[in-house]
Specification:
By secondary structure, the protein is an alpha+beta fold. 25% of the residues lie in helices and 36% in strands. The protein has 2 helices and 9 strands, in the order ααβββββββββ. The strands form 2 sheets. Strands 1, 3, 5, 6, 8 and 9 form a 6-stranded mixed β-sheet that branches. The termini are far apart.
Amino acid sequence: MERRSFLKSFGAVAACAVALPHVASAAEEKKSGGPNEMNFETAVAAITGGKALTPSAKVKMEAPEIAENGAVVPVKVTVDSPMSGKDYVKAIHVLASKNGNVRCANIYLTPSNGEAFFGTRIKLGGTQDVVAIAEMSDGTFLTAKQNVKVTIGGCG
């Protein structure tokens, strides 16, 4: 065996030995998701503590029917509430039903806010339902949802 071919072979083996463990661990990391990954039902249960969601006309959500780019989808949520000391919105949660991390935003309010309103931009990985959950001061959970068709996904 010539010295040159020996060094080429040794270099190729060394490169494989260094690269393969990193490729394998990256594949495992991709499979496991992340610490925030949970499905829609688990996220709703974490928010509501197992209580039922009630669809309500008091919760109004504005989101586009078709989003050109899933990386920046505007969402506005308004909840019809007097925001008094006894009757107010405690929190507004925005969820995307099919994202890896379905929880997009959690907004906590007090009667001092005066109005239960929130607007933001969220990422959507594909066509899915965007759900708003309003936690009321009496312990009930009101909801509204809208399907958003995404032409270019934003989470990948």
